[in-house]
Amino acid sequence: MTWNIHGAVGHNPRFDLERVVALIRRWDPDIVALQEVDSRRALAGAANPFDYLPRALGIHAIGARSITGADGDYGQMLISRFPIVAHDVHDISIPEREPRRAIRALLTTPIGPLTVIATHLGLSIRERRDQVRKLIDLAAGRAPLVMVGDFNDWFWPGSVRKALTRVLGGRTRYRTYPSRFPLFRFDRVYCCPGTLLMKSGVDPAARALSDHLPVIADLRAGDVSS
C-alpha cells in the first residue's frame, strides 16, 4: 500500500491518526509507504506519528524526516512486516524547493529479496525531472523492485510516468487526487519486472481521511527474477 495521509487531517478538518490506522489495518498490508507524515499537526498530548505508526502497523520501519523543527517533523515512512536487511535514505531535493527524500530498503520476503523505493516528489516539472533521474539511478540493477509513492505528476511530456515506465515494466493507473473527485494519477506502484504486479485498486473510503486515495497492490509470489 502507498498513501499520502495528508498529516492525518481529513476533510473535517481535524487530526485523526486512529482512523488512518484503522483503514490501513482493514487492508492488512505487508508493506506500507506513507507520505506527509506530520507530527506538527498532532494534537497536544497525541502520539507522535513517527513513533506511533510503526507500533500500530508493522514490526520494521524507516522514517525519512524531510523537515524538522521545534514544532515537530514532516516526511514519510516505510513500514514492513518483513525484515529490513539494509536501507538508505537519499536526499533528492532541489535547491530553493521543499526538501524531498527517497527511502530505499532491501526486504526479506516470502517471494525472496525485494527492493522497495518509497518517495514523494516535488510540485514543479523541473524538480520532478531531476528527481526521476535520481530514482532511476537508485533502482538500477535492483530487480525485483517496487517503487511507490506520491509522484505529483500529471503533465505527460517529459513526465515521471513516461520515464519510469521505460525502466520499470509494471505500474498502477488509478486516479487518486483529489480524493473526493479523483482526476490525477499522483499515487502509483511501479514494479520491475512488470509481472510482479498482480491485482490492485484504491479505497474510496479514504476520501474522508485525506486528500489522496491509497493504492493497494498484490505482488506475485514465486519466481520473480526474470
TrEMBL record:
GO terms for cellular component: membrane. One of its GO terms (molecular function) is endonuclease activity. Keywords: Endonuclease, Hydrolase, Nuclease. InterPro entries: Endo/exonu/phosph_ase_sf, Endo/exonuclease/phosphatase, GPI-anchor_lipid_remodeler. The keyword Flavoprotein does not apply. Residues 1-212 form the Endonuclease/exonuclease/phosphatase domain. One of its GO terms (biological process) is GPI anchor biosynthetic process. Pfam families: Exo_endo_phos (PF03372). The keyword Cell inner membrane does not apply. SUPFAM superfamilies: DNase I-like. This is Endonuclease. It comes from Pseudolabrys taiwanensis.
